[in-house]
Amino acid sequence: MSRILIIEDEESIADLEKDYLELSDFTVEVCADGESGLKAALEKDFDLVILDLMLPGMDGFEVCRQLRENKDIPVLMVSAKKDDIDKIRGLGLGADDYITKPFSPSELVARVKAHLARYERLVGSGVKPNDVIEIRGLRIDKTARRVTIDGAEKNFTTKEFDLLAFLAENPNHVFSKEELFRKIWNMDSVGDIATVTVHIKKIREKIEADTSNPQYIETIWGVGYRFRV
Ligand code: CA
User: Fold this and answer.
1) Which domains does the chain carry?
2) pLDDT tens, 41-99?
3) Ligand 1 centre distance from Cα of residue 54 (Å)
4) Tell me, what DSSP letter sits at residue 134?
5) How far is the CA of 5 from the centre of ligand 1 (A)?
């Protein structure tokens, strides 16, 4: 029997979620704030977490971030505002799904079941979930080596992919062209660092809406490049 943790400060919503999940034979525990919810999620053995975004004290963003550092169980985030969903996606926190209030309890139960089934398949098959970076509509699947922007897949060469993935894995860190060249092209020689500039240009053409005003990879004049989060 699957165990579900609900982290929700509104008692009426928590009760409703709990009732419906229990009717579907889940074992449910409720925590009413972020701190106790995170503690329970880390210390106990839950199969899925339903996480409200607006919580007293530690909010859902922070709970999700800290939970993800330690566990890869499915996290279903709940928010009252549609804007928050974009923010959750933008932060790349690794939430598995998002649901906006008000939602129907049966929809919640259906989502919970779908995520548990998917997770059990992954765990049972020994296949690890894909290693994915998601930032503001840009999705870099490092396992499948695929890049999508707002759901549309873009074709990347090996080096373009390696360069983008490396920068995205090290957000807000400024790298010089020399550093990037050594890192991605695996050479200690001085080489032709102009290659880096050319690749950055090609990557921007694929992922930026406006290449003259890049939202992902910024040029830091006289220094190098930085992936902005
Ligand atoms: Ca709340």
Assistant:
1) 3-124 (3.40.50.2300), 132-227 (1.10.10.10)
2) 999 999 999 999 999 999 998 999 899 888 888 999 998 877 777 777 666 777 788 88
3) 4
4) E
5) 15
pTM beyond 0.85, yes or no? no
For residue 46, how far is its CA from the centre of ligand 1 (angstroms)?
21
Q: Which two tokens stand for residue 135?
A: 């930032």
The answer to whether the beta carbons of residues 17 and 8 sit under 8 Å apart is yes
DSSP one-letter code for 188: -
What's the 180 CA to ligand 1 centre distance in angstroms? 43
Could you tell me the two tokens for 79? 């928010």
Output the CA 94–ligand 1 centroid distance in Å. 20
Q: Tens digits of per-residue pLDDT, 24-56? A: 999 999 999 999 999 999 999 999 999 999 999
Q: How far does the centroid of ligand 1 lie from the alpha carbon of residue 50, in Å?
A: 12
111 Cα: distance to centroid of ligand 1 (angstroms): 20
**Distance from residue 17's CA to the centre of ligand 1 (Å):** 13
Q: How far is the C-alpha of 114 from the C-alpha of 107, rounded, in Å?
A: 11
Which residues, in sequence order, are CB contacts of 79 under 8 Å at separation 6+?
A: 52, 53, 54, 60, 85, 88, 98, 99, 100, 101
In 3D space, the residue among 74, 73, 76, 62 whose CA is nearest the CA of residue 34 turns out to be 62
The residue type at 107: E
